[in-house]
Amino acid sequence: MNNLQNPDLNRLNPMSSSPLATHLAIREMVLDGMQLASVKDFFRGDLIHLSTYDGIIIEYTDQDYAIKLVSRIRSHFDHCLFLKPVFICKESGSISGVLDQNTDGCIHDLNHLYQLQVPLKKLLARIESVNLSGNQSYEEQVLFNFLAYIHTRDKEDISPFIDKSGIYYPVLSDFTKRNANQKHFIALLEKMEKDAYLQGFFHSATYVCSECFNDYLMYREVCPHCHSAHLRSEEVVHHFRCAHVAPISDFKRSDVGQDGLECPKCQHQLKHIGVDYDKPATMHYCQECNANFQNYAMKAYCCSCGHDQEVEHLIKKELKRYSLTDKAINALHYGRLHSRDKSNDAILEDTLPWHLFIKTVDFEETQNSHGQSNIVKLHFNDLSSLIKQVGEENRYKIFNEIIQIIKATQQPFDFRGVKFPFVYFSLLNTRQSDAEIISQRIVFLINHLLSDNLRLKRVILTAEVLPMNGKSVETILSGIPSAI
Ligand SMILES: [Zn+2]
Ligand SMILES: [Zn+2]
Ligand SMILES: [Zn+2]
Asked: Thinking of the domain 1-128, which architecture would CATH place it in?
């Protein structure tokens, strides 16, 4: 007992007594054979110097400094660091929020180090059980680190942490720069769930920017014509007696008193709503372009990336709490994740993977002795601005719809292939003149989808009919730099 209360606190490090500036100083301590490094929360030295210790103690002086240092450690790529047991030493009070979420405990005095002995041993044993030597791609390493953090902290599940700065999950998101990381970590979590490393449970839901996935959005009602938010709104009054309908201001007469209403058409007073009159609608008046309308548009400005979008384009995100699956725990012991096919273009439904598409064109061409088959090439000239308007995530939704439009027009034996910004489809056993008409019809339908349903403008779509004359594959491949 005596031994526990008076741990071996020898200051072994000559640094501690050296005149090193406090923002670089590392104090070494030993606790039951374990080496600990104690630094001030405003530590500005290279974190790598801390990677050889069994644990890190942060001497708290200021909330922001402490958060910043914990964040630097937890988002560090080196596995010797991000998993490191980190404790806070704070003279009084407790720690909460992000600091509590991302550290492993709190003591009030460096002389009470013994309190850390049990939790530290337990943590080190769990960290030991993770095989950190695996060699994997950057993305896999990020995922692996996240899984390793949850596992070593012995958490049943992990919930998103939400405060005034946004949403974050430990390790995955650097919580001092949440905005920049948002897009990345949401996609990663979805991928991990799809790959069965995580099991997700509904936690809450929100809308995020279609461009950067941030949720710090500024909503406002705007004029559907000029998109100005400078609007004036007024109720519309319907006088039962004479059926006159006009904005309420037309019924206001100064000589009838402040609240009195008088009909400008029949000059009768309107006394009781529901008896003399009702208010069937509210009209909005744009102060910029003078348009008036009953339904305004809603826009959401993303305070993170500056993308201003119609609310219909916002992406609904389920925020989930996650627990590790057995597959994840096996991967942690094994030392690496099993990566999947990363091909993006194959995600679209009802299209052939690109190499198969090319093979099929090649094959069909040899069958096409009568010259009655065609490949149509659709070119989305301004694809990057289309994606910018709808967001990366919606891109696949839209292209899936486009593929369905094409498929509905084709015959059952026809096929499709995609290599952005091109979409190709076959019109087999079809005369070239008919193929021209069909492709124009498809262009019309796609434009209709983009402009009417999605209110997308500025997308220029062209269609070119390529008769299958023995050179289609060459023509297709020559139009796409480094196609395969
Ligand atoms: Zn307007
Ligand atoms: Zn009237
Ligand atoms: Zn954004």
From this structure: 3-Layer(aba) Sandwich (3.40)
